[in-house]
Model the fold of this input.
Amino acid sequence: MSYKDQDKEKEKEYQRKYRENNKEKISERGKEYRERLENKVRDKLYYQKNKERIKAKRKERDTRPEAKAKKKESDKKYSKKNKEKIKVRRKKYQQRPEIKAKAKKYQQRPEVKAKAREKENKRRKKLGLPSVHKMGSEEYKKQISATQQGIDIEDWNGFSKKQYDQNWTLEFRRAIRKRDNQVCMLCGIHREKLTKALDVHHIDYNKLNTTKENCVSLCCSCHSKTQTNREEWKRFFQSLLSKRYGYRYLR
Ligand SMILES: [Zn+2]
Done:
C-alpha cells in the first residue's frame, strides 16, 4: 500500500468515526438545511402567487412620508459620493436624439417660452439692455436702422430701401461659401457644426456691390460682430482676401 493510499484510508476511518460520534449533530444540521430549502421554495411560490398584491404593498410603503424622507437622504448621499459619474451619465442621456427632441418640444410650449422671456428680460434689465419685448417694437427697429445707417435716431428718416443687386443669387452665395471652403473666415467654424448655412457678408456694407472680391463667408455670430467698427472690418477682410485669393482693392 502506498503512502497515498494509506492516507486515504486514514481519512476514511476518521470520517467514519466522526459520523458515529456525532450522529445527532449531523442529522440536526441536515434537518436545518432541508428546512431552509423548503422555506425558500415556499416563499418563492408565495411570491409568484401574490406578485401583484406584494408589489402594490411595497409601492404603498414607499410613498409613506418617512420612507420618502429616508430615500431622499440616501439619494443625497449617493449623489454627493458619485458627482462625476452622475455628470457623465446625465450628459450622455441628454445627448440622445429622442431626449433632445423632447427637450426642444418642451421649450417651445408657450408657458415655457414666456418664463424664459421673463428670465431673459431680468438679465437684460440688470445689464441695462432693452427688453425682449422692446426689441420687437417699432422704436427699437428704428434705432437699429439708424445705427446701421451710421446716423443719430433724430436724423433717421425711413428704413433703408436698399435692395440687393442682381448678382445676389443663391448660386453666387453658394460659390462664395465654396470658395471659402464652407468655413467662417473669422472664427474658422465649419458649416457642418452649424445649424444653417454660412452668411455671405458684404465687406464694404454696400448690398449693391455684390462681387466675389466684396463678399466673404461668416457664421451668424461673427457676422453680427461686423455691425460695429465698420471701417476696421472692411480693411480687415480686404487684406484677408487679398492675401488668400490675390484680390486687389482700390485704396
Ligand atoms: Zn464665425
In short: The mean pLDDT is 89. The longest helix spans residues 23-49. Residues 41 and 47 are 10 Å apart (CA to CA). Residues 184, 186-187, 189, 218-219, 221-222 surround zinc ion (CB under 6 Å).
